Structure formats: structure tokens, C-alpha cells
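Good morning C.,

I know you're traveling, so I'll keep this short. The sequence:
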Amino acid sequence: MRTELERPEVSRHKCLIYDGHPSEQLAVVVPLLRDGLEHRWRCLYLGDPEMVRMVDSALGLDGIDTAREVARRALIFSSDRSHLAGGGFDPQLMIDGLRALIDGAVHDGYEGLCATGDMRWELGEDKNLDRLLEYEARLEQVFRDMPLRGICQYHRDVLPPQAVNDALLTHRSTYMGAALNQDNLFYIPPELLLESRKGENRGGQVEWMCQQIIRVLNAEQTRDHALQRLEEANRDLERRVAERTAELEAANQHLEAFSYSVSHDLRSPLRAISGFSDALAEECGAALGTAGLQHLERVRAGVRRMSELIDGMLALSRVMKAELRHAPVDLSALAEEAGRDVRASAPERSAEFMIHLGLHAMGDPALLRAVITNLFENAWKFTAQRAKARIEFGQRGMESGRLVLFVRDNGAGFDMKYAEKLFGVFQRLHRQEDFPGTGVGLATVQRIVIRHGGRIWAEAHPDQGATFFFTLPASA
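The C-alpha cells, ready to paste straight into the viewer:
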């Protein structure tokens, strides 16, 4: 709680304290949602069904076609209370859901999420008020980390003073009034809001508000100077981005030319070597003798190996050039399919597949299929020496609004001191004689995950299996 007058702090995390009829919130809610829609933010109102209908009607009277905005998912009305597990309020569950909504809004091309709602509806039962301070603190961090703007609404006659005080303690600034103050420059001290209306020091309040107005004017002047500097920085940034884009376009042209050369110029001599090697073995095998035929077989094996490496390079190039299309993807179904495919490649092997159900992500279906397939093929290969292979696909929580997924096996594993080599092209941690491969599969997986804005890493121990973790956007 502030004990002295300070320069107000700008924040997207606003708080409305009101009393009287719930319609009093409309003077703040309507401008907030209208402003969000006009500036391409996805807007959310959360409250009981009656309040939802009230806000819907008020927006309509303000000239907003709510049916059209709802149909195109720019405006969401919700009375969902799935975060109340058995009636109990779970702050982290609520935060995870909010992060997923923000990620979904950004993914769909919006600036972010503009949200408001009645906190009493979100909290549910009275006993949940004990977790309000924890929730508001977690929420404040979301406002700092992600494109979220909104107003938490509290009815002073419904919530106990201590609960309101807990809410205000976590806000960097609070909001009251009939007009939307986007920069949120007024800070209303909790003691001013919570004191009794009888015996108030009205003169002191007026003096305090005058001082605040002066600070607002000073802050606006400072902001104008900052905006001017920002515009200059943006012009410089645009110039550098244009230069960098030109460099990348030139690099892509060189990469395409290289891929064409690999595809055509290198395959031709390989086919010649392969053809003459076959002819030499067939026509001169007796003259070559056992040792000669063994040498010739090594040449033919090298040709096959080189052909596989070329195929891998071209596949990796296609992954980097492919245009992403975003859609909901059933990862569990892809994992089931990948499990059936690898099992069919060696049906005599004993294996157990554990696929967690109901896992969905947002991304390119074809590329995410390649991620799951490559990771399952990798696990299948490195469990070949196990009496019974065990491969598991599942989720381990969330990270910044993204799913943390994993593929775990009980195979050969590896020494973690070599982990940085895992995702390099043609980098391998095991001998070709023990586990054949090109070293392209994991490099392909990493590039696909990065293109979806995620990251991938692994944990393992020699002869104790390996687990590959990766993050993907959650499906809306």
C-alpha cells in the first residue's frame, strides 16, 4: 500500500470498485470492449448469465453488432466456471486457461486479449476469497508477460473489505470512473476506497485529487516525448528490417539453388557409381575374389549411405520452405498412427505403447505429423536391443501457455554431455553399426517445433532410455 504520493504507474491491469446496481459497471465495460474491438483485440466478458445479457444489450445499444462480433470470435461472452474444481477456486487453473486464451488470440491475428468480468462470479464460494490475493498476484505477472489488458471488477457491497484490500495490494494502479483512461494514470489508495463514508475528510480528498491531476498532465507530457523517441526508433527498425529481409531473400535463393544442385548434380554420379558397381560384381565377381567383392560391397554401401543423406537434406530443406497453415491437430491420434506404423515395420518385436488421450495442439497438421513420426521412429530404433520396448507419448503441464509434450523410451539413451549435438544435421551419438540412421530426423523435428514458436530438449542417461520434450501452442 502506498503511504506517500508518487508518480502514477502505467498499467494494463485495471481495477474497478463499484457499489449499487451491477449496471454501474457498464460505463467502464462498454468503452473497454468497444476500444478493444476497434483496435483489433479479442474481447472477453466473464460473468453470470444475467450480467452477460446485460452487457450484450448495452453493447448493442452502443452501436456494436454483437452477433457478428461473436460469430467471428472477436467477442466472447462466457459464464464458464470450469476453473472451479468441485467448487474450489484454483488460481493456477484459471491462469493457465487465461494464458491459453491469450495465445489463441495472438495466433488468430489479434493484438492480444482484452478481458473483464465480475470477480465474484469467477471466485464462486465465499471460502475461495482466501485465495484471491494469490490469484491477483499471479494475474499481475500475466499482465507483465503477455498482451493482456483488462479490468477486474469488485462490488464493494458483496466482497468483504479485506478481500477488496487483497485485490488492490497486487495492482500497480487501480481504476474508477465513467470514462476509459487507457493509460490508467490515477492511483486510488485502498484506504481512500475502504474508509467509512461518514466523517470523510472531503477537503483532503479534493487536495489529493488536484495533486493527482497535475501528475497526470506531467505524465502525459513525458509520454508524448517518449512516443516521439519511439517513432524515431521504429523508423530505424523498419529500415534495418528491410535490409535484413533482403539478405534473407538472397540467402533463400542460394539455398534453393543448392538444393537443386544436390538433387540433380550429385545424384547423377551416384547412379553411375552404383550401376558400374553392380555390373562389376555381376561380370567380374569371380576374378575379384572374396576380398575384392567385400571391398566392392563397401563401395555400394557408401553409395546407399550418400543417397540417404541427400534425401535427408532435401527433406530438411522442404520443411524450412513449407508454408505453415494453422489448424487444430489431434496429437493423440497422430501418436496412435505412428505407433502402428513403427510396430508394422518389425512385427516380431515385443513392444508396449502408452499414448495419452485427448492431446490437441494448434499448428500445421502435416508438419506436426512429421514431428510425432520422427520421434517415434527414433524411439523405436534405439529400443531395438530391448527385450520389450516401451514408448510413451504424453503431456507434462504447460509452459507460458504452451503444451509441454514428451516422447519417452526405455532404449539406449545417451550421455547428456553430448546433448548439444542431438539436433545438428548429420550429428549422431551412436555408431552406424549399432543404430543406423542419417542424423536428419531430430534436426527436422527441431526446426518444425521452432517454426511453431516452441522449443525442444532431451533428458537421458546411457542405457536408461531418453525423453524428448517439446512445446506447441495449445488448441483453442
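Safe travels,
E.
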